Automatic annotation (TrEMBL):
Residue ranges of every copy of the tRNA synthetases class I (E and Q) anti-codon binding domain listed in the record: 460-534
Entry's family note: Belongs to the class-I aminoacyl-tRNA synthetase family.
High-level lineage: Bacteria, Pseudomonadati, Bacteroidota, Flavobacteriia, Flavobacteriales
Protein's recorded name: Glutamine--tRNA ligase
EC number: 6.1.1.18
Domain Glutamyl/glutaminyl-tRNA synthetase class Ib anti-codon binding: 341-441
Cellular component, GO annotation: cytosol
Length: 699
């Protein structure tokens, strides 16, 4: 591998060091080892890109090996989906392998372990095993079955294999060290009994190897040189090596396990268990729902394989877990779609625009550029007539000078067409505008070269001619979770953060060039975002998914909420400087209204943590945060932090802080009893009449 053009990440440095120390480059072999118990997600995409990328860089084979050791959770559907996703990402494996290919060899080695005193059959219950295994700070104790004779172990193990025992009656354990500081080394399980059919071996086997036993040995059998996995497997490396120690020969490559950090993506979950829960409980419509973090879901939504590969390259390989904002991925998607997606016009929230001085029986076919980013994309014809649809938000009857779209008495340009001027509106009985009437400048056609066509106006609107419009179903997808890290909050179910607005379905009107689109076709709806034709589309019902907007609205929302917090902190200082209760009431009300608008749970949690300190401004702000914001409840706050806030506030020099914490304690009946003695002390020492009245009432 050439190192002149780029710096090496730590994984590549490991490989280069091994080559330098004598590993022949033609012995390099990598693998991607998914378990077929779910669909691949964005985290897997990083591992896929790493392993297959190394194969490309070093011109070395990469195996696709399914670790299919648990038939209770594995299905052929998942195998097929995984293969489809990897191929779609643009990678090709050297060999397709399965851990089940090696069941016979793994069993034979397990028998050898028993004969060599390295394994035994344990007949304890799972509860008894858990008790004797100890804890990280308490060493384990030997199983009462640890010293079974070789003959008895061989007999029991064979009978386990033959299906003579119910599930849970026996397991095979490696005999290592019950006093090890690494809990995984305390006689780990190698085999368990499962009377379930396997998707490849059927009912041939009644016992199945555990992942830790099968994984390293499969690597060895395939002569994988480097086994890369995520950081949670770091404690497993010692066991990986111990198992290899028992079987490795000097004449073969010994696999090396090394770990890299998992890529966690904001506003998503990547736990297969949680993804399965989302599917099973119908929070989404299957594994390929466009809101899911699965590769299948992202493909259906309209993400491109090039964008995902670019994302994995952009974020790189790290040694520490970190949370990557999903906006980075969305940027990569926009960047790729901007190059390849044809521009078209669609209206999603229509209102009729009638050009009063345009002939009723006239239709012009105007020329429109397909993609200004692609010189080869060419042009298309779009129909223009007297009655059009425009977006409702593109018109205001009365508007400020900063509104750069259509209003009465103001001129704007219709994209690829004419300059128009707002004249009047028609409303229904509810006051809703049903028609906007305009006039057009007949000499202002875009690209005509006339003096009128060169005139500058403040805005440009997209439109669709009503008589030629195609009706379509538009699925407006947004982030599935409202919180950036939904499954990391202690005491909170990640499902509490499911975004209720993650899918909105509406009717849209499209220009007629889209009548023959096919599933997977991608377009930029001008001024609206990037959209992809969904697989649910039929000849009579075209369905478009919003892939991503033209800009990151979540970033704007996040900045707005951060500004709300910061402005509230600034305003709190004024609270202590004003002279009257009326002035303080006005300031508190303004802060309270601001705090009510903040919904980012992580931001609220972090704000509270930062402001529980012994300053009156911070303590007052923290109490007002609990008082006014309904997204953050006292039960969501770490108990130690909450008690610290209450304790500091009750002892604060400021009577305003003491008063507000009393109000919060009155509402927090679960914690009130913990502070009875402090309340009594405060009653005896309090000088402020308002605080004294409140605490006296409470005591």
């Amino acid at each position: 591998m050439s190192t002149e053009e780029k710096s090496l990440n730590f994984i590549e440095q490991i490989i280069e060091e091994d080559i330098k120390n004598g590993l022949p480059q033609d012995k390099l072999r990598f693998r991607f080892p998914p378990e077929p118990n779910g669909y691949l997600h964005i985290g897997h995409a990083s591992s896929i890109a790493l392993n297959f990328g190394l194969g490309i860089d070093y011109q070395s084979p990469v195996n696709l090996r399914f670790d299919d050791t648990n038939p209770a959770k594995e299905e052929q559907e998942f195998v097929d989906a995984i293969k489809r996703d990897i191929e779609w990402l643009g990678y090709q494996w050297a060999e397709e392998r399965y851990a089940s290919d090696y069941f016979d060899q793994l069993y034979d080695w397990a028998v050898l372990f028993i004969k060599n005193g390295k394994a035994y059959v344990d007949s304890q219950t799972s509860e008894e095993m858990a008790a004797q295994k100890g804890t990280p700070t308490v060493t384990g104790t030997d199983s009462p079955f640890r010293e079974r004779s070789v003959a008895e172990n061989l007999d029991l193990f064979e009978r386990m294999k033959n299906g003579e025992f119910p599930e849970g009656t026996h397991i095979l354990r490696a005999k290592i060290d019950m006093k090890s500081t690494n809990m995984l080394m305390r006689d780990p399980i190698m085999y368990r009994i499962l009377h379930k059919p396997h998707h490849r071996t059927g009912t041939d086997w009644k016992i199945y190897p555990m992942y830790d036993w099968a994984h390293g040995e499969s690597d060895y059998l395939e002569q994988i040189s480097h086994s890369f996995c995520t950081l949670e497997f770091l404690p497993h490396r010692e066991l990986y090596d111990w198992f290899l120690d028992q079987i490795c020969g000097a004449d073969k490559v010994r696999p090396k396990q090394r770990e890299f950090a998992r890529r966690n993506l904001s506003h998503t979950v990547v736990s297969k268990r949680k993804l399965l829960q989302l599917v099973n409980e119908k929070h989404v419509n299957g594994w390929d729902d466009p809101r899911m973090s699965t590769i299948s879901g992202m493909r259906r939504r309209g993400y491109t394989s090039a964008a995902i590969r670019n994302f994995t390259n952009t974020t790189g390989i790290a040694k520490r877990d970190n949370l990557i904002d999903v906006s980075v991925l969305e940027f990569c998607v926009r960047e790729d779609l901007n190059k390849i997606a044809p521009r078209v016009m669609a209206v999603l929230d229509p209102v009729k625009l009638i050009i009063d001085n345009y002939p009723a029986d006239k239709t012009e076919w105007l020329e429109a550029e397909n993609n200004q980013e692609d010189d080869t994309a060419g042009f298309r014809k779009v129909p223009f007539s007297k009655v059009l649809y425009i977006e409702r938000e593109d018109f205001l009857e009365e508007a400020s000078s900063k509104f750069f779209r259509l209003t009465l008495g103001k001129e704007v340009r219709l994209k690829n067409a004419y300059i128009i001027k707002g004249e009047s509106v028609v409303k229904d009985e509810n006051g809703t505008i049903t028609e906007i009437h305009v006039t057009y400048d007949i000499d202002s056609l875009s690209g005509s070269g006339t003096e009128a066509s060169q005139r500058k106006v403040s805005g440009t609107l997209h439109w669709v001619a009503v008589d030629h419009a195609i009706e379509a179903e538009i699925r407006l997808y947004d982030r599935l979770f409202s919180d950036e890290s939904p499954d990391t909050h202690k005491g909170k179910d990640f499902l509490e953060f499911v975004n209720p607005n993650s899918l909105k379905i509406s009717k849209g009107y499209l220009e007629p060039s889209l009548k023959d689109v096919k599933p997977g076709d991608k377009f930029q709806f001008q001024r609206l975002g990037y959209f992809t034709v969904d697989k649910d589309s039929t000849e009579n019902n075209i369905v478009f998914n919003r892939t991503v907007g033209l800009k990151d609205t979540w970033e704007e929302k996040g900045k707005k909420e951060e500004n709300s917090i910061n402005n509230g902190l600034k305003e709190i200082n004024k609270y202590f400087k004003v002279a009257t209760a009326e002035e303080r009431f006005v300031i508190e009300s303004a802060i309270g209204e601001t705090l009510k608008t903040v919904s980012n749970f992580s931001l609220l949690q972090n704000t509270l943590k930062k402001n529980v300190n012994n300053t009156k401004s911070s303590l007052l702000f923290s109490n007002l945060l609990l008082k006014y914001n309904t997204a953050l409840k006292t039960t969501d706050v770490d108990l130690e932090l909450l008690h610290k806030l209450y304790t500091m506030s009750l002892k604060s020099e400021s009577p305003y802080v003491r008063y507000e914490v009393l109000q919060n304690l009155k509402r927090d009946s679960a914690n009130l009893n913990e502070f009875k003695s402090q309340l009594s002390d405060l009653k005896n020492s309090e000088k402020n009449d308002q605080v004294l009245a409140t605490v006296s009432e409470m005591v």
